[in-house]
Design brief:
The chain has 127 residues and is mostly beta strands. Helix content is 0%, strand content 50%. It has no helices and eleven strands.
Length: 127
């Protein structure tokens, strides 16, 4: 089992950058495939990015490709989401999620595939 805690959210202006972090407690962080999702007010939670167990595979929503980068440091039990050139459309609560422990390395966009979730961190981008 793993517990997740996000940090790094805040209020920024359009064009700014933020880096979100998600730190996991528990064992064998390296056996989990990780993902970031976001939920804007009045909308459903949607996939943003995912990274496989060892970081060898990544996946992104079309809306964030080229601006957001997911990475992980298994020695620190942490996954990151670097967000550049932010727009007001990026305003949402961002959630970290873990899939596993998994026998294979892969990425998935489906929220139902993730067994563990953090509480979320708010990102607000002003115009």
């Amino acid at each position: 089992q793993v517990q997740l805690e996000e940090s790094g959210g805040g209020l920024v202006q359009a064009g700014d950058s933020l880096r979100l972090s998600c730190t996991a407690s528990g064992r064998a962080f390296g056996s989990y495939n990780m993902g970031w999702f976001r939920q804007a007010p009045g909308k459903e939670r949607v996939f943003v990015a995912a990274v496989s167990q060892n970081g060898g595979r990544t996946g992104y929503a079309d809306s964030v490709k080229g601006r957001l980068t997911i990475s992980r440091d298994n020695a620190k039990n942490t996954v990151y989401l670097q967000m550049n050139t932010l727009t007001p459309e990026d305003t949402a609560v961002y959630y970290c999620a873990a899939n596993g422990p998994a026998a294979i390395e892969y990425v998935t966009t489906h929220p139902s595939a993730y067994q563990y979730w953090g509480q979320g961190t708010q990102v607000t981008v002003s115009s």
